[in-house]
Amino acid sequence: MGDNIFVGIDIGGTTAKIGLVNDKGKILEKEVVHTLSSRDWREIIDEFLKPVDKWFGKNVKFKGIGIGAPGFINKKSGILFNCENIPGLINAPFVDYIKDRYKLPVMADNDATCAAIGEHIFGAGKDFTDFLMVTVGTGIGGGLILNDKVYRGMDGYAGELGHIIVVAEGRECTCGNKGCIEPYASATSIVKRIRDGIKKGYIKSYNDVDSKSIDAKLVFEKAIAGDLHSIDAIESAARYLGRLLGGIVNLLNLQAIIIGGGIAASGDYYIEKIKFYCSQVAWYSFTKDLKIVPAKLLNDAGIIGAASLILEEEKEKNILKRSVL
Ligand SMILES: [Zn+2]
Q1: pTM over 0.90
Q2: 47-78 core/surface letters (b: 16 or more CB in 10 A; e: else)
Q3: What is the pLDDT of residue 317?
Q4: Which of 15, 28, 78, 253 is at a distance of 20 to 30 A from 64, taking alpha carbons?
Q5: Which residues contact 99 (CB under 8 A, 6 or more apart)?
Q6: From the CA of 137, how far away is ligand 1's center (Å)?
């Protein structure tokens, strides 16, 4: 293996994916470990580091470790907060802990920001200098690349898209507010709309499936096959998100919007609806050249995105070095 190898750790609520990634964005090794529900953050982190310890012991030389996690991560301290899925990691100094262990650069950031950096370096964002990455899955996340660089804002929290209010006093959100985009447009919300209809008795087109197996992928399949209730559930989600994105396009005059997360795999059907509703509210001058495209990194986006944090940092340092010289 060459010298330009990075570790990417993609932390999720139930599992974490850990991989070795080279500077071409290729995954060389990959392992999945469970996210412990322990209250002690060291135990949770030690579990994630088992594969890293193994690679380190085999003398694999990596340049740094990037970590993507759901929640807000302070860009100076690396401290995570507002992470409902893994409360044990809130306020834990795990970045310093990992740095001490391997004596290597370690960076952590929000998972959607990691996805934006990953797409910028290796995926659908390679040719764009100004884009918004939107991840649509259990929740809705966002990451911004502006002027060819990741935009983090004052403390590192920028891009938080999922909790923008789209309906005053609207549906309850997991964050405690009412009317955020998440309960209107996440994959979870699409499935919930179908389940609610089945419970009330007016949706019968899912009678042939076990209710546990209803997921967003199935709703998309049924919609594409012409099921009116499934079309309605997706249309409603796309209308809320597309219009919100239209407002953001007006604010930032973006070159592109990249749609990632589980929903990206559904392809043109969804993207076309997002385009339609975005164009409905944004100025024509802002949308006529705007590209709305699916993410490219899909399944491995989390690991590659996390590893890209270190690559991006190196790139920044080299640019700085060059400009000083
Ligand atoms: Zn919310």
Answers
A1: yes
A2: ebbebbeebbeeeeebbbbbbbbbbbbbbeeb
A3: 81
A4: 15
A5: 105, 106
A6: 14
If you compute the radius of gyration of the chain from its CA atoms, what whole number of angstroms results?
20
pLDDT (tens digit, 9 = 90+) per residue, 170-214? Answer: 999 988 999 999 999 999 999 999 999 999 999 999 999 988 899
Whether the CB-CB separation of 247 and 146 falls below 8 Å is answered with: no
Q: What is the pLDDT of residues 217-244, one digit of tens each?
A: 999 999 999 999 999 999 999 999 999 9
- Cα(181) to centroid(ligand 1), Å: 7
DSSP state of 47: H
Q: Tokens in use for 138?
A: 């259990």
> Which residues belong to CATH 3.30.420.40 in the chain?
5-111, 124-295
Report how far ligand 1's centroid is from the alpha carbon of 183 (Å): 8
Please give the Cα distance from 26 to 28 (Å, whole number).
6
Residue 55 C-alpha to ligand 1 middle, in angstroms? Answer: 39
Beta bridge partners of 155: none
Largest CA distance in the chain: 70
Ion ligand 1 contact residues with beta carbon within 5 A: 163, 173, 175, 177, 180
Q: How far is the CA of 70 from the centre of ligand 1 (A)?
A: 14
Task: Kindly report the CATH class assigned to 124-295.
Answer: alpha beta
pLDDT digits (tens, 9 = 90+) for 2-27: 569 999 999 988 899 999 999 999 99
Backbone angles phi, psi at 107, to 5 degrees: -135, 145
Q: Which two tokens stand for residue 251?
A: 């604010």
Computed over every residue of the chain, the mean pLDDT equals 93
Residue 280 CA to ligand 1 centre (angstroms): 24
Distance 177 CA to ligand 1 centre (A): 5
Question: Under CATH, domain 5-111 is a member of which superfamily?
Answer: ATPase, nucleotide binding domain (3.30.420.40)
